[in-house]
Every structure is written in C-alpha cells, then in structure tokens.
Design goal:
The complex is a heterodimer. Chain A is an alpha/beta fold. Chain A has 9 helices and 12 strands. Chain A has helices spanning 42-49, 72-78, 94-99, 114-126, 142-155, 172-189, 200-206, 224-227, 230-237; strands spanning 2-9, 19-26, 31-35, 57-62, 65-66, 79-82, 160-163, 192-196, 209-214, 217-222, 241-246, 249-254. In chain A, the strands form 3 sheets. A 6-stranded mixed beta sheet of chain A has the order 6-7-8-3-9-10, with helices on both faces. Chain A has a 4-stranded antiparallel beta sheet with strand order 2-1-4-5, covered by helices on one side. In chain A, a hairpin with a 2-residue loop joins β9 and β10. In chain A, α4 (114-126) crosses α5 (142-155). The mean pLDDT of chain A is 91. Chain B is mainly alpha-helical. In chain B, 75% of the residues lie in helices and 1% in strands. In chain B, α3 packs antiparallel against α11 (226-248). Classes of the chains: A alpha/beta, B mainly alpha.
Chain lengths: 262, 328
Amino acid sequence: MIKLENLIFQHPHTDAPVVNDVSFRVEQGRLAVLLGPNGSGKTSLFKCIAGLWRPTSGVVRLDGTDLLALSYRQRAELLAVVPQDHTPPFPYTVMEAVLMGRAPHVGLYSAPSAEDMQIARQALESVGVSHLAERCYTRISGGERQMTLIARAIAQDAPLLLLDEPTSHLDFKNQHRVLEMVHRIAADKGLTVLMTLHDPNLAAFFADQVVMLKQGRIVADGQPEDVLQEDVLANLYDIGIGIASGEGRRLIYTRSQRVQET
Amino acid sequence: MRIKSIIILLSPFLAAALSLFVGTYGLSPSEIIDVLRHAFSAADSAEATIILDIRLPRILLSGLAGMALATSGATMQAVLRNPLVDPFILGISAGAAFGCAIAIGFLAWLPLQVAAFVFGALAVFLACVMARSGGEISRLSLVLSGVIVSAFFTAMLSLIKFLVDPMKLQNIVHWLMGSFAMADWQQVRTSGIGIVLGCLPILLLRWRLNVISMGDDEARSMGVNVSVKRIIFIGSATLAVTSAVAVSGIIGWIGLMVPHLIRMVAGPDHRRLIPLSMAGGATFMICADTVARNMTSFDLPVGIITALAGAPFFVYLMKRGGKESWGV
C-alpha cells in the first residue's frame, strides 16, 4: 500500500505550490490512475513520489517505509518508474536497455549476471516482445519502445510501478494493448500501479481507483464508476462533459461544438 | 562480434611488437631479437640502448596515452550523453596546457603531471560550478561552460607565451604540438601511474555508464546516485587525460574518434566499449607515433598524424554507416 500524507511541493522563488496538500492511498495490488488537465501538478507529484524532487513537506510511505528517507538504490528496489517516450543518445539493443532495470540489484563493481539476463529475458517475454531482444532500441516503433520500458521496470522487480503517461505517444490500438498488458502483469504479480493518463475513458476501463488533481489539489478520489461523473469531470477539465452508455460500457465525451459551415 | 573483440584486445600488443622493429637507426630484425633475448642481462651496446631505452618506453608511453584519451572520450560521451564531446570539451586540455606552460615557463620545480592535473581539474571544476543551477547540472550548460573555460585558459596560455622568455617559449610551443620524442622510463612510470589510476575506476564501474547515459532522472529511478557517479567518472577521466597530456602535449582526435569506431564495430554497450576503447586507443596511438617518427628524417608531432589519418577515415566510416552511425 502506498500512502501520501499532506504532500506539498513548491518550486523555489515561486508564490504558489504546484502540489498542494495532497493525501491519498492506493491499496496493494490495485491500479490507480491520476487524472488532471495539463499543468495540474501530475508530473510534479510523480517526481516527488519517485524521489527525484524533494517535496517541501509531506510524507510518502510504502507499507510504512518512508520512501523519501531512502537512498536511490533502496528506493529503486521498491519502486520502478516507466518514463515517457524518449530517445537515448546511443543505440543500445532492447536487451541492453531492459538489463539496465537490474541496476539496483547488481553490485557496484559488477555487470549483470546470467541470472540478471534470465530475469530480463522473462520480463521481455511477459510483455510479449522477446523477438525484439537484439533489435536496436532507437529503431523500434513507439509502441514497442513503451513495451521495452515497461519490461525494464518489470525487470527492476519492485512492488510499486509508476507510469508517467504511458499512452501519450501511442496510436489507438497500442494505447489499449499497453494498458491491457500493464493490467494483466500487475494482476499476475500483485503489483501496485500508479499511472497518469489523459483519456478518462482509458481510466474508466482499466482503473480500480481514480484520483483527480486540479491546480495541485485533489478534487476527487474513488472508484471509477463513482467519480467519473459528468459534473466531476466538467469541473476537472472546465469543459462540458457527457456520458453515453451501451453494451455495458460508458463513453465519456466532451460537449464542445464544432463550428458549422454556413 | 566475439572474434572482432578479441582481435581488438590483442591489437595493441601486436602493434607494439611491430613498432619495435621500425626506426630511423637501421637495425635488422635478427639484431633486435638478439637484444630482446638478452634484455635482462646487462648488455650495454648501442643497439640495446636504442631498443630498450628509446623505442620501448616510447611505444609504451604512446600506448598508455592513447588508452587514456580513448577511455576518457568514451566516458565523457556517456556521462554527458553526447556522442560529439571528447576529453577536451570540459576545458581539461586547455587547463592542463596552461598548467604545463606555467610549469615550463616559471615554476621549474613543479612536475608537469601535477601542474597538468591541478589545472585540468580546476577547469572541470569551474565548468561544473558554472553549469550548476538549482543543484542540477544540465548537459547543454555543461558543454557551454566547458567552451567558456577553454577559451579562458587558452587566452591565459597565450598570455604566458607572450611573457615567458624566448628559450622557454620554444619548449612550450614544442610541447603543445604533441610528441613522444622525449619519452623515457621515468615518464612511463610517472604518467603510467596516473593513467592506470584514472582508467581503473572507469573499467570497474563501466556498466553503470549505460544506465547514466539514459539521463539523470531515469538513472536515479533505477537506483544510481548520479551526482556521486558523475564526479567519480569525470574525476577519473580527468586524471587519466591530464597524466597523458603532461608527457605528450595536446593530441587531438583519439578521444573523439576511437570510441565511435569501436561503437560501429561492437555496439554502444559500455561493458564492451570501455575495454575495447582502451585497446583501440593504444593501438591507434602506437601506429600514429610509429609513422610520426619514421615518415621523415626528423620527428613529426604525432598530433599531426592523428588528425591527418583520423579525419578522413572518420568521414569515410560515417558516410558508409549513414545517419545511424552518428548515434542519432
């Protein structure tokens, strides 16, 4: 279980905090989605949880352990981060990239062992991209690269998985494929997952819990069917929202109007 | 890949052995082998002196210097996440050159190695302090401040050249051109210690370079304390490079070129890249210096050879490999 207590983050020399008194908890084995418009403080909150930025005040606990008091290495054993799509400066192979996830488990003066190689291979297999192992990481598609980054986080073997907008560079099909895969692996391994998403429909479909952030504050926190309501979402995004249902699913859409040609 | 790697790892020994047989003082191969067979019995002939006290230390020294430059180049490229930097981009060479010029010109009691390291390290330190804002060092600002520091120390070097007495100016200018002509066992010992001490931590920690090259935030989230590791890597690279610069002067190209050549052959994984760059740098420098001391009747500065041979070869490989070989 990850638990945030009164987390505040403010950039030095600024007036207002970007993360303002945020508290919520995600039970073990649950998949939580953080929703919020651009600039709502999602990324800052993520950096605080990941230990990359030191919060102005507040505590992040994983099963009672204060995450912020740990060294980078200790924290990396508990928490793996899947970053947004990026291009590394050197064309490593997919296998080499996934092996990097073993860094917290490999001795300071050592290189990954045969066992680490085996774990990396299994991670690639679990996300279904074993065939890419020897391909060049800079030359695969965006969807494949996202799979590789998720495999790297799985190889890191931490109980908490943080994903920063894992679908932002993906096409319609790959958005679903990636999230289905994350959902399945999290269930298989009993991982706790926290991710940011832009599309509330994806949150409605995959999340066990939805937390909404607006101007650094939490405006809603609960099960998706409870909090993904027209008025709550309209308040979150400042735009008219409608929800249609059919075939046992709900579709969230905006009430924005296209200017009609005359 | 494995066979290529073994060939590269063995190449410095082969190059050194061949280089021993080449020189302006005509010695037949049988004479040379004869000297080598009696190397440990106190033979005191002219042949023995040429082989054991002139050629051998010079070959060793050039190999060590090539190893230092190439290793540091590969390290800097990974730590700064920039395939186009070399050991000199942070102002190391300009700082070291300034330190050596001061030592040659004014402070004769100061060993060149010490002067080179102190001012090389000072240049890196200044570059890092300048680039640091809000506790973070971004790689672009680090490269920029390296350029500024280089410009500053280069200007200071010109000032020294202007002020120093003309006899010493000649020494400084000759030293700056880069040459192993003065190599002896004393130089091999003193610079060898610095080069080995600088290369060893890089060799031991080399797999972490993969992780660090992914960027500060990613490396930290994979458990690497980037700030500490960066100091270790840049400090070690500085020690190795300044130790080499102190005996050889400024020799360009090797630090940039060798890691690129190795990446084209063996890929970017630093588990292979670092040891292969060590071997490749040594081989390249031994070959370049062998050409430098034999091409004309007098010793050419080896820096001229590395640039003349390196630049076209580099362009050829880049063109052949296409855009991918630039690592973008």
